[in-house]
Write a structure and sequence with these properties.
Blueprint (H helix, E strand, L loop, with lengths): L2 H11 L4 H7 L4 H9 L6 H11 L3 H4 L20 E3 L5 E6 L3 E2 L2 E2 L4 H12 L6 H11 L4 H4 L1 H4 L4 H14 L13 E4 H4 L3 E2 L5 E2 L7 E8 L7 E6 L3 E7 L7 E7 L1
Antiparallel strand pairs: 1-2, 3-4, 5-8, 6-7, 8-9, 9-10, 10-11
Helix pairs in contact: 1-3, 2-3, 6-7
């Protein structure tokens, strides 16, 4: 699709007239009309406004002329997994696992490789091939080349360490000690728990990024512990394979 078709489709999908869209991005209705006929394309600042308004990348608005990849982990990017800056704007350089609300979640290349290999092994890669590929690829990506400039001097790692200490201090029966936390996107871990009255409830935001991990129960069996946390809360649950039969163990405000 071309830019004119994409803008027209997004406008109609969001139930806006040309005049309403024009008001939201501070242009005239005639300007919107010219975009949708292909006479002109929005300028850079207007593309940023359209990106924020519709929740899609500028790359998408321009008809996806480039294949975006995360400049931290190398993952191909689409609009659903692009990271966001602190102001909520999409950052087309990073995925939501590596960059959440303006914060980089990895400062250790080896840790990122360990996490990535678990997902890549079995999907056309052996574990050895996946590890070799990541070791070759990561140093070529912008985040790692500019690490001294982009990193936060270990502040996020200190926050993760504090969270780990708080979680372990809870002494949940049957749950092993938490040793690391990884970035997890809400839509992938937002389980629905059955409340005492029979109603179901979810506690996470599908669009947010959390820190968490999965741990095998010390009691054995099929159940695992799931740990999720952020600045505001700690959540601990159990569930079976593929997230089935989740049970909320603890939800604690920090």
């Amino acid at each position: 699709m071309t830019t004119k078709d994409i803008i027209s489709e997004l406008r109609k999908k969001n139930g806006m007239s040309q005049e309403e869209l024009a008001e939201k991005v501070f242009v005239t209705r005639q300007a919107v009309s010219r975009w949708e006929t292909g006479e002109t394309v929005p300028g850079t600042e207007t593309l940023k406004l359209l990106s924020g308004l519709f929740g899609v990348s500028i790359n998408t608005l321009l008809g996806s002329p480039h294949q975006l990849i995360c400049q931290c982990c190398g993952m191909p990017l689409d609009d659903s997994i692009i990271g966001r800056d602190k102001d909520g704007a999409l950052n087309e350089s990073y995925c939501r696992w590596c960059y959440a609300d303006g914060t980089f979640t990895y400062s250790d290349m080896d840790e990122l490789i360990d996490v990535s290999v678990k997902h890549m092994a079995g999907e056309g890669f052996t574990e050895e091939q996946a590890r070799a590929y990541m070791k070759q690829t990561l140093p070529t990506l912008d985040y790692w080349k500019r690490y001294d400039e982009l990193s936060d001097n270990g502040e996020f790692d200190k926050f993760k360490k504090q969270l780990i200490d708080e979680i372990n201090a809870l002494h949940i029966e049957g749950m092993p000690e938490v040793k690391s936390l990884n970035a997890l996107v809400g839509s992938f871990v937002n389980l629905e728990y059955r409340l005492p009255g029979g109603a179901g409830a979810k506690f996470l935001d599908d669009g947010a990024t959390y820190l968490g991990t999965q741990l095998e129960s010390e009691f054995g069996g099929e159940k695992c512990f799931g740990v999720l946390a952020n600045m505001d809360f700690i959540l601990i649950c159990t569930y079976e394979n593929q997230g089935k039969n989740p049970e909320l163990i603890l939800y604690k405000k920090r």
